[in-house]
Design a protein that fits this description.
about 15% strand, 6-stranded mixed sheet, single chain, 20 helices, alpha/beta, about 45% helix
């Protein structure tokens, strides 16, 4: 479910406001000036710099403030940027003398590039001795690893993609439960259409909801290794039969009018996709757990009255993937710049392992209605929704990161174009595969 400059982008809470061009340029100029003096070349002793996004500022800032209060001689200077501004800024800064010592990233393809270029430290022995990962869900910790070594530690909530459904709508259509298999879903689509109800809501205008269908289907059909081969840049990895089959399944669903009429004009960034499901104009919606708060804001009674249903993505009969596998946003991660001095690296590591996922850090995340990526999260959750999702997380053999984050920037850009063409029936599955194979290694 990937993902989505300062324009409205929701994935994993990544929401930013569109600023006027002049104001944005001015703000970045000031930030660059302020940070340039605080990078690797300008920090003294154990003082360090951390850059993050405004989306995760509410989580990060309180813990850094507490660290600075406790460590006045090794302070962390934190700065925050809109998601796309951050991506642009860190791209050039991470390899420069002004690199922040705490490197904010989403793991996946970007982290692999950092590791290949020698830009971040291997934390394997450090996290083993600290025991930090002992309470982290293994599938989430794995996103911070490259070739079996740990280079990044999770620092934000976890947000898998789940199948939401309107219980009232299903009941009126004579459907008693969520679809357990893809064949069940297709049968439900036919039943709902016969009742004059749009089966599935999707925010096609925003593009990123498209990827959720493909990443889950590829997993269910071929298992997680199919996408692992793609992000490992194996030649012609997109040609795997599981990818081609999944693309065909998506287009079959589109041709069967499985998605609400006019879905390509529906915006997920304004919660229009949620509104269709909540108001009963559509039965199902595949979205991230970050949508829960949006559903409640549209109709507070929808959840209270027990109308909201949540289920795993359907299994595919004969598929190699485990039906318990999940996909979405495992977390956001901290790495340590390889340019950090010994003292700076110690500050960064101590902060990461001693001030992240403490009781107070957990509370900050829980108060936002989010789920910590920790094994003991269930003991701190209060809603049935959160408890059910946490169970899915802990039982998942594999947690596939949203493809747009796992892919390299160049491949991710091409991916959006191909997805829009695919869902719009403007290209064939084979054309999709051929075009994406051209991005391997870029």
């Amino acid at each position: 479910m990937g993902i989505r400059t300062l324009l409205s982008m929701k994935k994993g809470g990544r929401a930013t406001k569109r600023w006027a061009a002049v104001a944005t340029a001015a703000a970045i100029s000031v930030a660059l000036a302020a940070c340039s003096s605080g990078g690797s070349g300008g920090s003294a002793g154990g003082a360090i710099v951390a850059w993050g996004t405004t989306a995760d500022k509410p989580i990060i800032q309180p813990s850094i403030a507490q660290w600075n209060k406790d460590h006045p001689d090794a302070k962390i200077t934190d700065s925050y940027f809109g998601t796309n501004d951050f991506k642009s800024k860190i791209k050039t800064a991470v390899g420069s003398p002004q690199a922040p010592q705490l490197v904010y990233n989403w793991g996946g393809g970007t982290l692999s590039q950092y590791v290949k270029a020698g830009l971040v430290k291997d934390l394997s022995s450090d996290v083993t001795s600290s025991g930090f990962l002992d309470n982290i869900v293994p599938s989430i910790a794995a996103i911070g690893q490259v070739d079996g070594k740990t280079y990044a530690l999770p620092m934000s909530s976890t947000a898998p993609v789940v199948l939401y459904y309107n219980k009232d709508v299903l009941s009126k259509a004579g459907i008693s439960e969520a679809p357990a298999t893809w064949d069940d879903l297709l049968a439900d689509v036919k039943t709902l259409k016969g009742k004059g109800i749009s089966p599935i809501s999707i925010g096609g205008q925003s593009q990123w909801p498209y990827l959720m269908w493909l990443e889950y289907l590829v997993d269910r059909v071929g298992g997680p290794t199919v996408f692992q081969n793609i992000i490992a840049n194996k030649p012609n990895a997109w040609s795997d039969p599981a990818v081609l089959e999944s693309l065909k399944m998506i287009q079959s669903l589109v041709k069967a009018d499985g998605f609400a009429k006019g879905f390509s004009t529906v915006s997920a960034d304004t919660n229009a996709d949620l509104a269709l499901m909540v108001t009963g104009k559509a039965a199902f919606m595949l979205q991230g757990t970050w949508s829960y708060s949006g559903i409640s804001s549209i109709d507070p009674n929808f959840v209270k009255d027990g109308k909201l249903g949540v289920a795993p993505f359907p299994a595919v009969t004969g598929g190699k993937g485990d039906p318990k596998d999940i996909a979405g946003n495992p977390s956001v991660y901290w790495s340590i710049s390889s340019k950090a001095s010994t003292a700076q690296a110690k500050t960064a590591l101590d902060y990461m392992t001693k001030y992240v996922w403490t009781d107070s850090y957990d509370k900050t995340v829980l108060d936002q209605g989010s789920i910590p990526p920790t094994k003991d999260a269930a003991t701190k959750l209060t809603t049935d929704f959160a408890k059910n999702v946490d169970q899915m997380i802990n039982q998942a053999p594999s947690f596939t990161q949203s493809w747009d984050l796992a892919l390299s920037p160049a491949a991710s850009t091409a991916f959006w174009t191909q997805l829009s063409l695919l869902f719009g029936l403007s290209e064939t599955p084979q054309q999709f595969v051929d075009n994406m194979n051209k991005t391997i290694g870029k």
